[in-house]
Amino acid sequence: MNQNETTIRVLTWNVHGCVGRDGVCDPNRVARVLEAAQPDISALQEIDSRTRAAARDPFSYFGELFGWTTVSARTLTAKDGHYGHIVLSRWPIESLGEIDLSMRWSEPRKAIVGAILAPGARVIVIAAHLGLLPFERRKQFARLRERIEAIAERPLIVLGDFNDFPRVNDSVLSAALAVTPPLATYPSRLPLLALDRIWFSAPLGLVTAATLNDTEHMSDHLPLVASLRLERTERTESPAGS
Q1: How far is CA 149 from CA 41, 75, 156, in A?
Q2: Residue 114 CB neighbours (<10 A)
Q3: Which domains does the chain have, with CATH numbers?
Q4: pTM of the predicted model as reported, rounded to 2 decimal places
Q5: pLDDT tens, residue by residue, 12-55
Q6: Which residues contact 93 (CB under 8 A, 6 or more apart)?
Q7: What are the DSSP E strand ranges found in 162-240?
Q8: What is the model's pLDDT at position 21?
Q9: Backbone angles phi, psi at 193, to 5 degrees
Q10: Gyration radius of the chain over CA positions
Q11: Staple partner for 226: which of 149, 186, 209, 236, CB 3.0–4.6 Å?
């Protein structure tokens, strides 16, 4: 890698409320995986603070622990807490709002949209957790594509748990974005389905992609990690000043 290039390490993981296959809610286990993987940008799905077993608020815990910036989407709200997903970044991140992906009679869904000031570039990130039913996902992929096409700024990363099996909706995004290989992430004990994906645009290029198989007892999904090569530019403006 030359001095005009940098590598962005990206992770997406459905953490199942930080509840492992042993039934124990332990955000510290998730934190240890993040510490070892050293991602620059992370998307964590099924963040859940609605249980007394969650001694720490998982929406803020990981960011506070590592000093990372956080943007969250709370899709369900109850008297005892919230449920949703988060984006974490070791660099400054600005929220650019949410995409409503909810469908009538189904669990509410939102996508997070943010701008991250990575070294040499401002990176747009969209993090999603799509529905379980095929008709939901068709409409949700269409809404994602509509928002992506409305964003002129690049590079762009789209990541999360797309629940898309069989992968009938890949073509909806593939015209504009590249995607990591379909690595199986679910179920974690014997992975068969590539439900978790990382999409990206030029000038990002894929260096490596892998699942973290030693985490199979911590959630029903495995984490997916990709290293993306980014050519540096002279552009250094902050998200707040854009």
Answers
A1: 22, 24, 11
A2: 23
A3: 5-231 (3.60.10.10)
A4: 0.92
A5: 999 999 999 999 889 999 999 999 999 999 999 999 987 655 55
A6: 69, 70, 71, 87, 114, 115, 116, 117, 125, 239
A7: 178-179, 196-200, 204-211, 224-231
A8: 92
A9: -115, 135
A10: 17
A11: 209
